[in-house]
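User: These chains co-purify. Model them together.
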Amino acid sequence: MTLEEQLSTLAERYGGRGEPEWAVTRTDVLVVRRGEVVVKAHSQRDDPAELALRVRAAASAPLHGLMLAPLCEEVLRVAGRAVTVWPAGRPVSPDDLAAAPWEEGARLLAGLHAVPLTVLPPLPAAGGPARAARAVARLTGQSAQERLVRQAYAGLPEPQPLPGLLTHGDWHLGQLVRRDRWLLIDVDDLGVGDPAWDLARPAAWYAAGLLDPRSWERFLGAYLAAGGPALGEGDPWRRLDLPARTLTVQLAALALDRAKREGRELDETEQSLIEACGRIVGLQRSLR
Amino acid sequence: MQCPKCRGNMRTYERNGVHIEQCDNCRGIFLDYGELETLTRMEAQWHAAPPPPPPAAHGPGWGAPHGGHYGHHRQRSWVNMLFSS
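Assistant: Joint model of the two components:
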């Protein structure tokens, strides 16, 4: 049996009915939905022991109402891959971005960040910074754009040491599903880290001129109003700046990598990220 | 009034309640009695004033100039970016 067939069978065993629907979120991850059940074969890169801790945290009572709980608390092995089983939910509709649940996402993140680590099983480091490093490491070409992105990354200052909090590690609109309420999904990067990283991707979009100020203010305002602890007092950009710069570099690196694989030039959206990297490098130069 | 240094014509200006005579020729400045003290006091007040509140936190120094052209970001790659890692 192929991996696909085995995942499909596993979904059925957990009560999933109907035709399997395949979602290719990333090249190294395979997700199948059958009716009410979703089965995910994780990246071979993910450490199964760390994944097990993350799944257990998602199943634990303190995360109830914040993160989707798995149908199976264990990480299964299928054809050598780590596999997890989840109830299905309704994702955010990409067709109606005006109705995107920015506030709900922000409130869930604020709640997640406020969960004391002492009430959870032990967790590894959140995956955000490592993701950025991997995206830049893949960029080995010598084009002016690639050199600019590497330069922006190399010039990032060292982060200030902060006490770690529970952090999602890879937040975007695809990380929300609705069941009886909106919930966070995807435990792959969940862990202990600087929670400002969870706000950094929308911050990077906003700073690149991609996300409209209204949506950004809805998101940031809801996070602060919910008492989210990531940004401290005063100017929110004091804590956002470094993670948002890093996410800008990460997104630019991913865009270059994708465009190269698809044999095309960057489009206008992707170009905005390169321009943001240019401004980051300019600022780093002026401060030297 | 004539400039005591170059004999040029001096013109009177008023700046924040302080009369200043400035020579049209050599640009030298003449202060009346007490005016230097007034300036010194105003300078001290300026330095003691609480720092102005930081500008509303609208974004980082490296942010794009926001001109409200988001409408044509209906591109597929923007939507993909909103939803993927």
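Residues 52-56 of chain B have pLDDT under 50 and may be disordered.
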